[in-house]
Amino acid sequence: MIDHIELLRLIENDAKLSNEDIAVRLGVSEDEVVKEIKYLQDEKIILGYTTNINWEKQLPEHCIGMIEVRITPTKGKGYDQVANIISQYDKVSACYLMSGGFDLMVIYEDKSLRDIANFVNQKIATQEGVLSTTTHFILKKYKANGIMFDMPDADDRQAVIL
Amino acid sequence: MSDYSNKISDVVNNVPPSAIRRFFDLANEMKGNVISLSIGEPDFVTPWSIREAGINSLREGYTHYSPNSGYIEARQAISNYISRRYGVTYSPKNEILITVGGSEGLDLVARALINPGDEVIIVEPCFVAYKATVMFAHGVPVVVSTKEENDYKLLPEELEAAITDKTKYLILGYPSNPTGAIMTHDELAKIRDVLVRHPEIIVISDELYCELNYLSDKPASLIQFPELRDRVIMINGFSKSYAMTGWRIGYSVGPAPIIAAMTKIHQYCIMSSPSMAQFAIIDAAENGDSCIEEMRNEYNHRRRVLLKGLADAGLKCFTPYGAFYAFPSIEGLGLRSDEFCERFLLEKKVAIVPGNAFGECGEGHVRISYAASIDDIKEAVVRMKDFVDSLKKG
Questions:
Q1: Of the candidates B39, B304, B374, which has its C-beta nearest A160's C-beta?
Q2: ipTM of predicted complex
Q3: Fewest CB atoms within 10 Å of the CB: A25, A78, A140, A162?
């Protein structure tokens, strides 16, 4: 019997593991792994498999904005309608309803500050129900998706010790 | 004065140098090109919260000696940890001593208990320091050789047969370095039954690997038997469970008079354990249970990958459920274990340790540590298969 949490933690850290690898690590059969992963996908617990990429290294022009949005809830739909409209944009990588001084946190990725400013001006500020926005730009990434950037991974242990 | 042979004490001269010293040097020289599955320490870095607690103690200026037996706050944290994990209570006031790693505890116990000529029962294959610390203290090691067919567990009749009227103490190390063997509560109960018939014998339980047990999420220990309460000393530490080897911090718990005797030696030769490390272990003992859990899970995955790889390589290996070692047999391949390891290192660039380093009964086996990345383990077992195949052909 596979512990779903153990399985999910494993592939959360390494989506490229083969079913055979997973089966050996968890001490179960490959068939069981296939069956349980299918179940987790059908239940929409597993939503997809992505890659962690340090885009700053690959693309000199890459910019991330974190946009705070204050909105008036729509009658009957609360915040969902505005959130849904904003989330549909491909370059919006995340959208969260927040507690505190604003309502939505929108993460938006594009080539430049100007592109992000245009998006805020043209697509968010003009949205019905949006009261105000505050945009923050990411200057440097230290850690994202659980991964530290620029960390040495040398093993300094002695080759043999008692 | 160039001849030192009569300057070094007999007792030190009589302790043989580590049988694998030459092998150590060879492996260290080759470091960089070699996959090392020879290492007896976690590859994880100490969890950040623990490291930060150590750093903060420096910021706040705690750079002085601590009390001889350790800061009371650290002893209290250890006491809480033992009560939470083992379900038994030890007083932080006089039943816990903080030492420089678990190893210092082994030395203190030997010097506190042994009169010249006293016998100490040592269960091999085992950690190499057991025999040496006994000999340094003028004791006589009496070896019990455990067997692969018994999963390297100590059987009650084997213990009974080794006891004489000179037996001072028994030293047990489960989960085991080097075999990865464990003993369950029920198996330990049978050892307790023997000890109950011999009330004069003290028991040292080395439990450095207590948290690395893949069959149970709580440690099983002789300290859990009330009948033995007045004569069990547990040697433990933070090195393996919390990946803190370099901090050199451990502890001993046991009856107050024995802890007092050990503290007497400790105060003269060590003074007190490093203060910074004591602050770090307060955090470890109080907040570290989830770190232990995560590391144990990861080791368990690696254990399964290694065992599968060894089976694919055609090596017979009893299933280890503790520590981070496997101890496969290399019998029938025509090499002694030290030859096997040396050739494997030179020809395939993988370092493992010959089984006879841990006692004569370890001959015919090798110790493979899985405190290494899964990629390294997988590559190493592929090379092992090549090597074993070449020996079978040759």
A1: B39
A2: 0.77
A3: A140
